[in-house]
Design a protein that fits this description.
Layout (H helix, E strand, L loop, with lengths): L3 H12 L11 E4 L33 E4 L2 H4 L3 E3 L8 H15 L1 H5 L2 E2 L1 E8 L11 H5 L2 H4 L5 E2 L31 E8 L4 E3 L2 H14 L3 E4 L1 E8 L6 E8 L5 E5 L3 E3 L5 H4 L6 E11 L7 E9 L25 E3 L2 E4 L4 E9 L15 H12 L10 E12 L3 E4 L6 E5 L5 H18 L16
Parallel strand pairs: 1-9, 5-15, 6-16, 13-21
Antiparallel strand pairs: 3-8, 4-8, 5-7, 10-11, 11-12, 14-18, 14-19, 15-16, 15-17, 17-18, 20-21
This protein binds flavin-adenine dinucleotide.
The site of flavin-adenine dinucleotide (FAD) has 43 residues, from helix 1, strand 1, helix 2, strand 10 and strand 14.
Length: 453
């Protein structure tokens, strides 16, 4: 799989001291042959060209399909306070080293940043009016019950909202309407323990660097079987089909790493990785925006356009006003290219398709996010330009990392939840050690150990 986990694994295999392109053959097979699946047609399709249309980090046409799933549509937040704790410090450190070695600041937007929780009161967009002014005056949580809360992606990190102190936001958080919309602010992370990357550019760079060191990358190659010797004790080959002409190929191999994100249990049914769809948007601000990742809690007052219900399929929610206050939790990450990324809640409405190329985007769910963030920030609202509406599948349940005890050479690295970008390099490094040295050296696998599957 050509997501962050597969690409980091390929990269770190080529950086292992015992690796030699003369004796080792590494092939990365990616099912999709386009990274445009899960994006509306009017979205930008190469973020590398945003800052400089002639940039050298432009998409390698031969790599279209790499980072086409969650690894290209995630936020890209990195944090020492992420989980699991056995993997996080190694991976956070590796992100820093990779950025230094390969000019990650320029190439994939690596930078240290702040992370904060903000409790906000949405302004009702023009053309609509609140029909219950008394409720609008209350702050969100006081006015709603649990059924009217739409949870954010990294919800496990949030403090109880009642504990949030109204401390006043930092002065440079000037792209948030701190006068009218901000109710409470609390810092969560600082540049000492928090950073970010552009996940699509990072993943593509890992693929490119791996290829330059000898990895063969084949896109439009969907693995359909992992073949073992007769008694099942050793991997022998993988079968993949060319998604364009349906031609089947058998690739002999000593090791097979299944890094297929949410698709993993289709190849390895005993590995319990599950999938939830999540929508996100990218908005360009008229001026650069300061380096904050905001975990919001926004109270939408009566009269605000109704968010699409979790189980609704393509509901035209836009402009239908809500009657009672509702709380939503989009996460907003300012990026160094002058854009902000924002993601909404997960849904289970559309099952995981065959490949990332067929991921369905529900435009109304993207428009929900756009309306909600526009109600607390003019830069991301009336003055912003929407560059992308997109959806992808969050792999859940793990991370599961390691070699099967039953089948030598069969490895898995999947189910990385909402921290797969943070934990990609650490996972790749550990896999390179397991494959070449027989065991993980740089960190304990701990609860991630997948040898039982
Ligand atoms: C909205 C959202 C925001 C997020 N924000 C963050 C964040 O801020 N920080 C963070 O650390 N993490 C974040 N994440 C999590 C992160 O995106 C994922 O954990 C990570 O991208 C998973 O990477 P992966 O390589 O395992 O899977 P994927 O990116 O899904 O890649 C798997 C690849 O395998 C390919 N594949 C599947 N089946 C086959 C097959 N049979 N043959 C060949 N190829 C196959 C797929 O086409 C795909 O390209 C976010 C996730 C979402 C959904």
């Amino acid at each position: 799989g050509g997501g962050i986990i597969g690409c980091c694994t390929a990269y770190f295999l080529t950086r292992h001291p015992s690796y030699s392109p003369d004796t080792h053959r590494i092939t990365l097979l990616e099912a999709a042959s386009t990274s445009s699946g899960g994006r509306t047609d009017d979205s930008i399709h190469d973020p590398a060209t945003l800052a400089d249309p002639a940039t050298a980090s432009k998409k390698n046409p031969a790599h279209d399909g790499i980072a086409g799933a969650a690894s290209g549509k995630a936020g890209g937040l990195l944090a020492l306070w992420a989980f699991p704790s056995n993997l996080v410090p190694l991976s956070f450190q590796l992100h820093d080293e990779l950025a230094q070695q390969h000019d990650g600041e320029r190439r994939w937007g690596y930078r240290r940043c702040y992370a904060s929780q903000v409790e906000c009161q949405a302004r009702v967009p023009g053309g609509l009016s609140a029909n219950d002014k008394s409720t609008v005056q209350q702050t969100g949580r006081d006015a709603v019950d649990g059924n009217h809360l739409t949870k954010g992606l990294h919800k496990d990190h949030r403090s109880k909202i009642r504990a949030l102190q109204s401390l006043g936001a930092p002065e440079d958080l000037d792209w948030l309407d701190t006068d009218k919309a901000l109710v409470a602010y609390e810092g969560m992370g600082t540049p000492k323990d928090t950073a970010q990357v552009h996940p699509e550019l990072f993943t593509r760079s890992m693929a490119q660097l791996a290829q330059e060191s000898g990895v063969k990358i084949i896109t439009g190659a969907r693995v359909t079987a992992i073949n073992k010797v007769a008694d099942g004790s050793q991997v022998e080959s993988v079968t993949y089909i060319n998604t364009k002409d349906g031609q089947e190929t058998l690739l002999p191999t000593t090791h097979c790493v299944v890094a297929a994100g949410p698709w993993t249990s289709r190849l390895l049914p005993t590995v319990p990785v599950t999938a939830s769809r999540a929508h996100s948007v990218v908005v360009k601000s008229p001026q650069p925006i300061s380096a904050y990742a905001l975990f919001t809690s926004i109270a939408l007052p009566p009269g605000f356009p109704a968010p699409t219900p979790e189980h609704a399929k393509g509901t035209p929610a836009a402009l239908k006003p809500i009657k009672r206050t509702q709380v939503v939790e989009p996460e907003i990450y300012a990026r160094p290219d002058g854009t902000a990324y924002a993601c909404g809640p997960t849904d289970q409405t559309v099952p995981l398709p065959l490949t990332s190329a067929e991921v369905e985007v529900d435009r109304t769910r993207c428009d929900d996010i756009i309306t909600q963030i526009g109600a607390i920030s003019d830069e991301l609202g009336k003055d912003g330009e929407v560059l992308a509406r997109q959806a992808c599948y969050l792999p859940q349940g793990g991370p599961f990392i390691g070699e099967s005890r039953k089948t030598k050479g069969l490895l898995v690295a999947a189910g990385h939840t909402c921290w797969g970008i943070q934990n990609g390099p650490g996972t790749g490094k550990l896999l390179s050690e397991i494959i070449i040295e027989g065991e993980a050296k740089s960190a304990r696998l701990g609860g991630c150990d997948a040898s039982r599957y």
